[in-house]
Amino acid sequence: MSTDRYQKGMDKLKELTIPDENSPTGHMEVGESFKDIAPDLTRLVVEFAFGDVYARPGLDNKQKVLTTISALVAQGTPQIGMHVVTGLNVGLTPDEIAGCLVHLIPYVGFPRVLTAMKVAQEVFAEQGVAITAKPESGESSAG
Amino acid sequence: MSTDRYQKGMDKLKELTIPDENSPTGHMEVGESFKDIAPDLTRLVVEFAFGDVYARPGLDNKQKVLTTISALVAQGTPQIGMHVVTGLNVGLTPDEIAGCLVHLIPYVGFPRVLTAMKVAQEVFAEQGVAITAKPESGESSAG
Amino acid sequence: MSTDRYQKGMDKLKELTIPDENSPTGHMEVGESFKDIAPDLTRLVVEFAFGDVYARPGLDNKQKVLTTISALVAQGTPQIGMHVVTGLNVGLTPDEIAGCLVHLIPYVGFPRVLTAMKVAQEVFAEQGVAITAKPESGESSAG
Amino acid sequence: MSTDRYQKGMDKLKELTIPDENSPTGHMEVGESFKDIAPDLTRLVVEFAFGDVYARPGLDNKQKVLTTISALVAQGTPQIGMHVVTGLNVGLTPDEIAGCLVHLIPYVGFPRVLTAMKVAQEVFAEQGVAITAKPESGESSAG
Amino acid sequence: MSTDRYQKGMDKLKELTIPDENSPTGHMEVGESFKDIAPDLTRLVVEFAFGDVYARPGLDNKQKVLTTISALVAQGTPQIGMHVVTGLNVGLTPDEIAGCLVHLIPYVGFPRVLTAMKVAQEVFAEQGVAITAKPESGESSAG
Amino acid sequence: MSTDRYQKGMDKLKELTIPDENSPTGHMEVGESFKDIAPDLTRLVVEFAFGDVYARPGLDNKQKVLTTISALVAQGTPQIGMHVVTGLNVGLTPDEIAGCLVHLIPYVGFPRVLTAMKVAQEVFAEQGVAITAKPESGESSAG
């Protein structure tokens, strides 16, 4: 029988989301909001994107979220909010998320990273979290 | 004085590369090979890309390599070979690297991932490494 | 003389648009709205984009609209609304338009398709049309 | 059990390919060639890309190939050879394929289209096909 | 010591901006607005983007702004407003800026250029400037 | 009659190319090499790309070449060789061309610029030209 993949996807989604009013279950909702134009979209998202791919062994959840965020920033696609929330849910710290964005600068340029930073900033505010480490801000480049 | 950033960059490069004839010190060579057209390129690469960004706290080296690979695959830029080698050098397993590429499929599509997979495959062969886990290959989706 | 290309373009535009208050003659308006910054833009759009390219034999109008929509979705450019309207005008069904978007998922990834789906959804609502076929929604992948 | 999706995908692949030595069964081979790095890739390609998406009702095969080609050209991904062959296999004429590429010029610019044209040209030569219609070549833009 | 690069960057920023209430000192503000998520961002922007790159000999300021605008339009990134203002500040005329955008059409397609044109149009209005030359608007292509 | 645009395009092409065996008349050849697949391509290139756009007032030739190169690098399209030759033909110095590429780093990232630098390097070698200015190469960032 094959509730196998669908169940795998649903289980993965539960791992990734913390159900409370501050955490949108964005991933699931995405499929549902398009029922009228593509009724099979929810199934494709849950079964393929989550059951086959997100639930796949190899990377841990934190590494998977970093991979997702990096790909979206590189594409200039600013819808990373949902994935920043997911990242916090699976244990990435705000420092790690901000670190991922800064790390992308030499590969995709400043504009795409700055677009993403704005989104991350808003999510951190909504979620009531903040970075802890303080990379030297005012220090000049030498001694 | 400011050999500070330059040294920071060089130290980071040493962390990332294992000098032997199979491991190209690709990152450093990149700057050097363009001396005749942009003499300052090596400095920009070593000081900014490595001294300021790659050496920045926040993410560990393995997370940084995954971030880099993801961004390049998303851009359709197949020059990930050097970064796959770096990934192996800093402790990513072939399974983690392959897992990163498969994870990108729902975000960037199959064609870009397949281009990258070919490169990773060649690097694994050159480096004499292979994946260990075996996600079910022939199993159908149920039963 | 050469009203030839301009006329060809205008004739094509008439084919593509159904003038009523629900159908924006978006294509023409695009040029006109930039008269103050590039007075020749309307001419370039009408003569080249429509007279030379859109009026060219080879593909029929429905195939041309699908080509256009696919290119824009792949680029992450969400301004497909005007082209969804054009598609309906030339005889594409909502099922064909939705089918085009779902077909793009394996090639460009889910995020870009979902951005486009939102736009198509809004246009269908404005135009009072809906898909008819119902790909199995709740069915799991086997049995 | 679920050989359902896998079978659907295989059936679709048979529709799309004409097995003879000139027609690469490229789509299937793609998965197989990466067995050593991602054993599940063939299954993902056959079941999702072909079983779920390519076999989906909505667009006919010719429209699907045009959609695919357009997306790849827009991405600057020149691996359209396999899809040009598929297009010919399902009944697109060389004129329709060339028409699709020219139609993309106003949306993605000349460079990406020219890269694709070179590939299409090579496939037409290998397949021994040619366009039939002759859009006016030497005619200037006015009478 | 190295206030060298930081000072170089600040000096360049002064060259590029005309401080009055209509000219956002956008470049500097960008770093500052992300202090809470990446305290080192301002330093990276001022020292690398402006001190190392923007202050580099080779191109003059007007050529540099055209290069920047072209890259952003090609990426589909519409945040060119700040750079259009900078362009006017360093002596590019509205005609040159509009000319740059039209010149991009054959390379990136109409949609990306039109998105950028809207932004440039708004900036020209805010800044109270306008193009002077009038490329023939209504003239057909011959005669 | 309208040999007007065609002639305008041909005149522009003559301005941009220096006919000798080292300077490919690449722009014209591009259209001609696709006669068998799109007989109208030469006309579209000469009349639209060169007659309407490249011949348009607003930017001078040097600014136009920089705009073109920037757009192609940003797109990750490495076919800039022809445009580097054109740039040298219209009076851009190797320093200006190299300066354009370095200037792009903060906007598109290092990988795309390095791909382009390799091409420019090859063209400079073929054309027997070299940069003259020497941005400080070995100097560290301070003192």
Structural commentary:
The structure is a homohexamer of 143-residue chains. Chain A folds into two domains: 1-56, no CATH class; 59-136, Up-down Bundle (AhpD-like). Helices cover 63% and strands 0% of the residues of chain A. Chain A has helices at 4-16, 26-32, 41-54, 61-74, 81-89, 94-108, 110-127. In chain A, helix 1 packs across helix 3, helix 2 runs antiparallel to helix 3 (41-54) and helix 6 packs antiparallel against helix 7 (110-127). The longest helix of chain A is centred in the last third of the chain and has 18 residues, at 110-127. Chain A is globular, with a radius of gyration of 17 Å. The N and C termini of chain A lie far apart (66 Å).
Write a brief caption for the model.
The structure is a homohexamer of 143-residue chains. Chain A is an all-alpha fold and 143 residues long.
Helicity of chain A, in percent? 55-70%
Number of domains of chain A: 2
* Chain pair sharing the greatest interface: E-F, 44 and 43 residues
CATH architecture title of the largest domain in chain A: Up-down Bundle
Instruction: Quote the CATH topology of the largest domain in chain A.
Output: AhpD-like
The first-level CATH class name of the largest domain in chain A: Mainly Alpha
Largest sheet descriptor of chain A: none
Helix-and-strand structural type of chain A: mainly alpha
Q: How large is the radius of gyration of chain A? A: 17 Å
Beta-strand level of the residues of chain A, as a percent range?
A: under 5%
Terminal CA distance of chain A reads: 66 Å
Low-confidence stretches of chain A: 137-143
